[in-house]
Specification:
heterodimer, A: 196 residues, mainly alpha, 0% strand, globular, B: 417 residues, 3-stranded antiparallel beta sheet, two-stranded antiparallel sheet, 6% strand, flat
Chain lengths: 196, 417
């Protein structure tokens, strides 16, 4: 039996089939969690955002008209919930949270690939600077960058998520990269560092 | 186009390792199956249509492209703007007092125009006839020094003032425009003064407009404007106004979303001994609601009743409310500020909206006690008496404002799905 498409699952869920929506959840929860984690930078909040995203998506199924793909529609809800979680924090908590789960997981993965402690140390510094640079971007640029560069979504789909044109997405990515480049350059991370 | 050019001229490249890091950012491993199971359980408690629209809106839509500022529409040189305003007010079928004021202003504007035309005719006659025909006694200048009809203003200005009769300066459309401008400026000045002092006799004779509510500060239109006209004396004379105005009350949007019409969205009453007026109801408080909802409605019946009305307000209101809004007593405000009320209600409005998903806008009266907590929520309209009303009440009761000295503070909100 061939796997049902997202649209078919949504149509079934609209008729009351919660199991179909469960399939949709399992299919996209990892990506939604990664998106939420990069936006809210807190594992517990990202978990809450992920859960709320799918629950609210289910509650809004009556308004899904099929003009976009279900997962871009779900992503939009995830972005809105993530931004809401950020804005609900106190001003002092909006900056980098102390225990950023992204850092350690990145370093654990890369440490295995690097031969020397020096390379690992340099890598850690670059990773921290990169994350700090991404977090220093505005909500608009950071969200766009996460969707495009981290999640790998095409510009057209990102435009559907954010409600803007493809050209605007391209411009925002350009601007985000430019600022990130300046940020890294100011901290001594120029072109041609390390390996890939 | 500019963006494309900039992107083409400066294609941003990040260090290769940075691109690699961005593209392959790992995340901590989780038990996604357990997460999914928890979500599915929550789905059984979730109803279709329960999600508010706010979660579906575009988070970062396209920004408006900068456009060239359109040229300002050419203004008519002989624009009787004040007269047009007065006519528009006079044409409104609502309040007889406003109509009277508008008619008076029309007459004033007409008088100014007629005077302008008269002086213009004098100028024409002085140009076309000999100097001896001019109304002012002729000076020693010979006829040849009379300026040509189409002569520039500089010629007239070059002539010394004392040697020329007044009419010689009155030429052509310039004087007509100047006269109208002066008349309009005078009328506007009177109008602004009437806004500040609606009880003054000049206010009722002002052009165009509409005296604001008498005593309360205009800084708090939804609240303070309730006070002064709400008198037994005034209300006895103005029930037709209340009837006429009350239907207008429910029109505007609810508080948190539409700051452009807070005055229209909020009707405030004081519960200092007087029953608060229900939505659309007619009571002695109705005129105050009427005035609050529409600041521009004349509050005083006539100048003969304006002052007694204001006095009656001070006498009739047990709390002795003074015209100026926001007065302090013992460090606490008389009533919560508009911003605080809006913030408090706005913070709970999302939950309230969820109660009327798919329903119709619901008018709701919210009463704050002096401690700043909600003491009463009265849902009216189609949702009254339904489970949605209890849901709305439960949500709105969580609103909080800072303590204040008045016994209660009541406002109307519209809960829109």
């Amino acid at each position: 039996m061939s796997e049902r498409t997202d649209r078919e699952l949504v149509e079934a869920a609209q008729k009351g089939d919660t199991d179909a929506f469960g399939v949709l959840v399992r299919r996209h929860q990892r990506r939604v969690y990664r998106l939420a984690l990069h936006l809210v930078r807190n594992a517990a909040e990202a978990e809450d955002v992920t859960q709320d995203t799918f629950v609210r998506a289910y509650g809004a199924l009556d308004r899904f008209d099929g003009r976009s793909e279900p997962f871009t529609w779900i992503y939009r809800i995830a972005v809105n919930l993530s931004l809401n979680a950020i804005r609900a924090r106190k001003p002092g908590e909006r900056s980098n949270p102390p225990d950023d789960p992204r850092v350690e997981s990145l370093l654990v993965e890369r440490r295995a690939k690097l031969a020397s402690p020096e390379a690992a140390s340099s890598d850690r510094e670059l990773a921290l600077t990169l994350l700090s640079g991404v977090d220093s971007l505005s909500e608009v640029l950071r969200t766009t960058l996460v969707l495009v560069a981290v999640d790998g979504m095409p510009h057209a789909e990102v435009g559907q998520v954010l409600g803007c044109s493809e050209g605007t997405v391209a411009w925002r990515i350009h601007e985000a990269r430019r600022r990130l480049r300046e940020y890294l350059k100011d901290r001594g991370h120029d072109q041609g560092e390390g390996d890939g | 186009m500019i963006r494309e050019r900039v992107m083409a001229e400066d294609p941003v490249e990040l260090p290769r390792i940075v691109e690699t890091l961005l593209g392959s950012f790992p995340i901590p491993e989780r038990d996604y199956e357990a997460d999914a199971s928890r979500i599915v359980v929550r789905l059984t408690e979730t109803a279709l249509g329960s999600t508010a629209d706010q979660w579906l809106v575009a988070p970062f839509p396209d920004e408006a492209e900068p456009k060239s500022v359109p040229a300002a529409p050419p203004s008519s040189p002989s624009q009787p703007s004040l007269a047009a305003l007065a006519r528009s007010v006079a044409n409104k079928p609502s309040r007889p007092r406003a109509t009277d004021i508008a008619r008076e202003s029309l007459s004033v504007a007409a008088a100014a125009r007629s005077q302008t035309e008269l002086m213009h005719e004098r100028a024409r006659s002085s140009r076309s006839s000999s100097p001896s025909v001019a109304p002012e006694p002729p000076r020693s200048r010979p006829p040849s020094t009379e300026p040509a009809p189409s002569g520039p203003n500089s010629e007239r200005k070059a002539q010394s003032m004392p040697d020329r009769p007044l009419s010689s300066f009155l030429g052509g459309p310039w004087f007509a425009a100047g006269g109208l401008g002066l008349a309009a400026a005078a009328a506007l000045l009177v109008w602004f003064r009437s806004q500040e002092q609606p009880n003054s006799p000049s206010a009722t004779a002002a052009t165009g407009v509409i005296a604001a509510a008498a005593s309360p500060s205009l800084d708090h239109p939804p609240t303070s404007a309730a006070e002064p006209p709400a008198t037994s004396h005034d209300s006895a004379q103005s029930p037709p106004q209340a009837v006429a105005a009350a239907p207008a009350a429910p029109a505007p949007a609810g508080i948190p979303a539409d700051r452009s019409s807070p005055a229209a969205a909020v009707a405030v009453t004081r519960a200092g001994g007087a029953a608060a007026a229900p939505v659309g109801g007619i009571s002695q408080r109705a005129p105050s609601e009427h005035v609050v909802l529409d600041e521009k409605v004349a509050s005083a019946q006539t100048k003969s009743t304006a002052k007694p009305a204001a006095k009656a307000v001070a006498d009739s209101t047990p709390s002795g409310l003074q015209p100026a809004a926001g007065s302090m007593s013992g460090g606490l405000p008389d009533k919560p500020s508009t911003g605080a009320v809006q913030a408090a209600v706005g913070s709970v409005m999302g939950s309230a909206r969820a109660c009327v998903v798919g329903g119709k806008p619901t008018p709701t009266k919210v009463t704050f006690g002096s401690q700043g907590t909600v003491t009463e929520v009265q849902v009216s309209g189609p949702a009254a008496g339904t489970p949605a009303a209890a849901c709305i009440e439960s949500a709105l009761r969580k609103a909080r404002v800072a303590p204040f000295t008045s016994p209660t503070f009541t406002l109307m909100v519209w809960v829109r799905p």
